[in-house]
Q: What sequence folds into this?
DNA sequence: CAATAATTGTGAACTTAGTCACAATTATTA
DNA sequence: TAATAATTGTGACTAAGTTCACAATTATTG
C-alpha cells in the first residue's frame, strides 16, 4: 500500500463500480470472489482491480480471493458511504424534482433535506415529502441544518452565483448539473447530460468508419 | 492533422465543452477567440485545445485565433450535432420523465419521439406532449419511426434485457442511466448519478487530509 | 517595409494510467 | 506432508494523455 497518496480520479470512480458489483455478489449469496470474477462482470482487467485496491490496503487472501462482506465494509469506509450525507437541491425544475424522488440516492445514504428555487410561483409546492422553499430562505435553513452536499440544478446563468452562495454557507461538495464550469475551491462533480448525448452522437458517427 | 485515427475519449468529451463555450462567445458577440481565452474559461491549458482540434484539421489563423462562428460550424459537423437525432426513452420513472421535459436536449437537436414503460398502470398517461406506451409496442413503433438513440432509464435488473431488445431494433446508441455495465456492441454512454455522488463523497472525505 | 507582438500547429518531453508477469501465499488433493 | 492449483499484491514495463516549447504565420505599428 502506498501511504498518504493522491488517488487518481479514474481509481475513485472505479471504487464506486466495485462497491456496486460487490453488493450484487453479496445479494447473490457469494462469500468469496476473485478479482478475475469482478473484472469480467465489469469488463475490465483483474490487475486493474488489484492495483486500485492496493492504494488502500491488502484486502484479499492469496489463492482465495476477497471476502465479499468484508470488502464491502472496507469500500464503504474508503468511499465514505458508511455515513449519511445531508443534501440540498437548488433548482426545482425537471432535474431537481427528479432527484428528490429518485430512490437510488436515499438508498445510498444521500438524504435530501431541502429543495430551493428562485421562482416564487414554485415556492410552497411539494415534491415528494419536501416543500419547495425560496432561495432566500437558504441562509436561515443552513443555520438550523447541517448541509454537506448541494446539487446545482439551476439554469446555466444562475449557477455561478449559487455556487458562491453555497461556498459562503460552508457546503462541502457540489454535484453540478448546469452546463458551466464552476469557479470554486469546493470539490465539484459534473453531471452534464447533454454532453453525454453529444459524446454518444460523435461515437455513432464514427461507428461506420472503424 | 492525423488522418483516420482513433480519437481518445477525453478529447471527445472536451469537444463538447469547446462547442458549449464557443456558443457562449458567439452570444456575447465575439468574432475571434484565442485558444488561451477558451482555456481560461474552461480551466484547462491552451495547448490542450489546440492539440485536440488538430485531430480534425487546422481551424485557426496564426497570430489571430479562431473565427468563432466558423469553429462552431466545424465542431457541429465533427460532433454530429449538425443534424437532428431521434431519441426514445425506456422507463417513465423519475429520470425518464425528467428527460422528456428537459429543454436542453431539444435545444441540442435531440428530439424525444417516444416514451415506453413496462408498467401498464403508467401506459396512456402523458409526459409533456408524449403519451407513455407499453414496452410491447416498441417493436411496432420502430417500424414506423427511425430511432437512432435510446435512453435506458429502467431499473437495473431490466436494463440488460432492454439493451438486447434495442440491439435487435437496430438502435445506434444508448445513454444508460441504469447502474449496470451493459453487454452490447452498440456505443453506450454511462450517466451514473449515484456514482457521481459517491465520487464526491470520497473527495470530500479527502479534503482535510491534503 | 521592417520590426514587433500575438497566436497557431505540432513534434518531443514528460506525466499519468493501465497491464504484465511473477514471487508469495493459501487451500486442496493424493 | 508434498505436490498442485488458485489467486493476491506489486515492481517493472507499456500505453495513453498532457504539456512544453518553438518554428511558422498573421496582423499591427512606427
A:
Amino acid at each position: 500500500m502506498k501511504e498518504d497518496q493522491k488517488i487518481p480520479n479514474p481509481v475513485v470512480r472505479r471504487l464506486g463500480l466495485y462497491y456496486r458489483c460487490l453488493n450484487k455478489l453479496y445479494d447473490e449469496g457469494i462469500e468469496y470472489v476473485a478479482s478475475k470474477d469482478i473484472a469480467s462482470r465489469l469488463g475490465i482487467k483483474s490487475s486493474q482491480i488489484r492495483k486500485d485496491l492496493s492504494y488502500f490496503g491488502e484486502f484479499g487472501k492469496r489463492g482465495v480471493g476477497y471476502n465479499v462482506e468484508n470488502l464491502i465494509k472496507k469500500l464503504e469506509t474508503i468511499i465514505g458511504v458508511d455515513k449519511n450525507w445531508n443534501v440540498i437541491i437548488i433548482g426545482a425544475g425537471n432535474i431537481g424534482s427528479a432527484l428528490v424522488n429518485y430512490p437510488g440516492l436515499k438508498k445510498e445514504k444521500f438524504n435530501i433535506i431541502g429543495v430551493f428555487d428562485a421562482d416564487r410561483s414554485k415556492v410552497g409546492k411539494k415534491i415528494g415529502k419536501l416543500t419547495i422553499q425560496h432561495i432566500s430562505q437558504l441562509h436561515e435553513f443552513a443555520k438550523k441544518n447541517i448541509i454537506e452536499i448541494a446539487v446545482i440544478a439551476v439554469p446555466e446563468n444562475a449557477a455561478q452565483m449559487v455556487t458562491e452562495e453555497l461556498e459562503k454557507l460552508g457546503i462541502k461538495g457540489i454535484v453540478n448539473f448546469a452546463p458551466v464550469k464552476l469557479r470554486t475551491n469546493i470539490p465539484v462533480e459534473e453531471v452534464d447530460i447533454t454532453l453525454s448525448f453529444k459524446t454518444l452522437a460523435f461515437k455513432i458517427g464514427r461507428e461506420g468508419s472503424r
Q: What stands out?
A: Chain B has two domains: 9-79, 85-193. Residues 1, 34-36, 46-47, 50-51, 53-54, 58-66 of chain B lie near DNA strand C (CB under 10 Å from a C1').
